[in-house]
Specification:
The protein is mainly alpha-helical. The longest helix is centred in the middle third of the chain and has 56 residues.
């Protein structure tokens, strides 16, 4: 399962959980707003964390790809020197 799919399922689960909690929790409006605020903060933190992980993976993939291309270019240069003398 891709990270984006996991993230979507996490967000959907959190939304469903929040809806169920609002329906069944006997809290006052003020308490409910506090709860929703905390939940929104937690969700935002998770989004930021997931974005940072995604960015890190992208950077690693870029660096790996660059290393592969640099190595391939080195082999091409060696081949040219051998062929052209």
């Amino acid at each position: 399962m891709k990270n984006s799919e996991r993230f979507f399922l996490l967000m959907a689960g959190m939304g469903i959980g929040a809806g169920i909690a609002l329906l069944f929790a006997p809290k006052s409006g003020k308490e409910t707003r506090k709860y929703l605020s905390r939940m929104a903060e937690d969700s935002r933190d998770k989004v930021v964390e997931t974005g940072e992980e995604f960015l890190d993976h992208g950077k690693k993939a870029y660096e790996h790809g660059k290393a592969v291309v640099d190595e391939a270019m080195e082999y091409i240069d060696r081949g040219r020197r051998v062929v052209l003398g």
